Amino acid sequence: MEIITKRFILRDFVQEDEPAFLAYHAEPRYAEFCSAEESTPEFIQELFQRFRQWATEIPRRNYQLAIVDHRTLELVGCGGLRQNGYGSEQAELGIELAPQFWGRYAYAIEIGKALIDFGFRDLGLKEIIGISVSANLRVSRLAKRYGFVEIGIQPSPDWMNVRGWNQIEWQLTRESWEHLFPSPRLC
After folding, report:
1. Which CATH class is domain 2-180?
2. Using CA atoms, how far apart are residues 106 and 137, in angstroms rounded to an integer?
3. pLDDT for 84-118, tens place per residue?
4. What's the CA gap between 106 and 160, in Å, rounded?
5. Which of 43, 41, 51 is nearest to 17 (CA)?
6. What separation in angstroms does the CA of 132 have from each of 63, 65, 155, 160?
7. Exposure class string for 146-185: b at 16+ Cβ within 10 A, else e
């Protein structure tokens, strides 16, 4: 499974990605919006193996892909669409970049567009959901850029509540995406 963009290859994880995956998850800046449990090496290793397992499921319902720089072949993060827990025409979008790539050269913009296009075009989704931490303003800006609308606040875990944070739920419909980013028409 591969999605190719101008600068990136989004592909299934391979075992050789694990050291880079573990390294960027161990960065203190990365852990800012994670619970203490989600920052442990054990949790991160289990997460990596879960992403690899998802690639083998039939039928496939979860696409959590390694994001690799075309030129350097460096792992810059991961992103995907997950359908577990959602209807057949819905998925949850998630994108994470290693901290050294935050805010640089519109990486998340390019990757997000590719994943959303894949979801609506190839998976036949009608709706893509996003869930973010209220304090993560970069994610809020990205969601709004793509036409996501805030549809509610979800109950937050204790570690978020003590910081005064909430979980924001976002929604993007195929119709609103196609209105914002119409597909080129062939004559």
Report:
1. alpha beta
2. 15
3. 889 899 999 999 999 888 877 789 999 999 999 99
4. 28
5. 51
6. 19, 19, 12, 11
7. bbbeeeeeeebeeebeeeebbebbbbbbbeebeeeeeeee
Break the chain into its structural domains and give their ranges: 2-180
Instruction: Summarize pLDDT for 119-150 with one digit per residue, the tens.
Output: 999 999 999 999 877 667 777 888 888 899 99
Residue with tokens 């997000």: 112
CA 119 – CA 80 distance, rounded (Å) = 9
Amino acid letter, 149: V
Q: Are 11 and 1 in contact (CB under 8 A)?
A: yes
Contacts of 134 (CB under 8 A, 6+ apart): 140, 153, 165, 166, 167, 168
